[in-house]
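re the bet — no i am not wrong, look at it urself. input seq straight from the record:
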Amino acid sequence: MLKGLKFLFVFATFASTVLANGFLQPNPKYLILEVVETQLRALQQNDDPVPGAGIAQTWAFAHPYNRAVTGPLAQFE
């Protein structure tokens, strides 16, 4: 639980910076292959630029129904 809260705090503090530096959001312009590669690369480099960034990137592409079942990002982690 504490780990999840720590991650959420870290994510909240760097989210705007990461979004400005290429944290991708779903967009129909991306090919399926690009989305899969983005998520796999993010998970391979999960702690770059900060711990858990790869999981946060994957969460950005999670379907809203998936988010509803898994709960917030900390639960998804």
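see?? The chain has one domain: 2-76. told u. also Confidence is low (pLDDT under 50) at residues 7-21. so pay up
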